[in-house]
Amino acid sequence: MKRRTLAGIGAGVFLLPLAACGDGDDSGGDGGGDGLLVGFAQVGAESAWRTANSDSVKAAADADERIAELKFVDAQQEQEKQIDAIRTFITQKVDVIVLAPVVETGWTEVLEEAEQAGIPVILADRGIEEADEDLYVTRLGSDFVAEGHSAGAWAATTFAADTDFRILELQGTTGSAPANDRKAGFFDELDTQGVAYTIVDSQTGNFTKEEGKAVMETFISTYGLEDIDLLYAHNDEMGLGAIQAIEEAGKAPGTDIQIIIVDGSKAGFQAGVDGKVNYIVECNPAFGEQLMDVIVQVADGESVEKFTPVEEGVFDASQFEAELPNRQF
Ligand code: AHR
């Protein structure tokens, strides 16, 4: 019998309508057997990070006897597909919905529908706007603002003596938490440290290699690279695409222009070992097992923190070679 024990989720954190939960109705969903039926609306498959994250969550769900079934939807970076997935999960009467929201806004209506149905929502990876924070129980993922600060701290030290420190920025998906927060943390750090800088341009590459390369090509044809000190790429894929564009323009990434990337994939570290990347801020996708624990806690009505950050590190050129064999994705 599938467990339906949702009453009293996180006292004072998220109140569920009792009629719709903990009612012993096991007819919903098709999970069958013991354990929880979980719906996961994933962002997509835009990066090695994302694929590693999906693999981590699926493997953890498969291995965890507390989980009867994980219904996984790849939303192809489209919010509408995630909203449709949530509505389908509600119809299927899942026990818990996990959402990795592609952007921060536009969730109120569908999350209210989940609330009305008595299904708790957990955010994995990305966050949503503060106005909707009562509509989810907890978030497990990265502290993207801290990642931005880490990148900014390295840039502030590296370019401390530069009186006109000139930056190109490749932002992640417009409106996404990591794009907003990595930007905010980075420039807040530079401002706090009193660094004089110019943002020469800042455009979205949508967290993909193809779009990162295309945007970098436009940057190069518009500004050249002679007067640019740093490229801050919000993820590995965009940084790797930009590296291709820089090389095709006959320049040396990592030397003619310094590069910071965020994620820490094997390919990103290899670029670092090859001297094409100068600093890597880790974003850790391997929180599948931790997520299963949170799902069970939430389903059992235990009190949970509103936000649990995953552990992450930072790496400079002196560490790339030793760290490369440790990278998992
Ligand atoms: O939300 C995490 C970010 O999403 C990762 O940095 C990026 O690679 C992915 O697309």
From TrEMBL:
UniProtKB keywords: Signal
Highest taxon above the source species: Bacteria
For this UniProt entry, what is the primary localization, expressed as one broad class?
Answer: other
Q: Check the record and name the InterPro entries matching this protein.
A: Peripla_BP_I, SBP_2_dom
Q: Does the keyword Iron apply?
A: no
Q: Is Signal given among the entry's keywords?
A: yes
Limits of the Periplasmic binding protein domain: 39-302
User: What Gene3D superfamilies would the database entry show?
Assistant: 3.40.50.2300
Subcellular location field: Cell envelope
Name the protein family. Answer: Belongs to the bacterial solute-binding protein 2 family.
Q: What is this protein called?
A: ABC transporter substrate-binding protein
| Taxonomic source organism | Glycomyces endophyticus
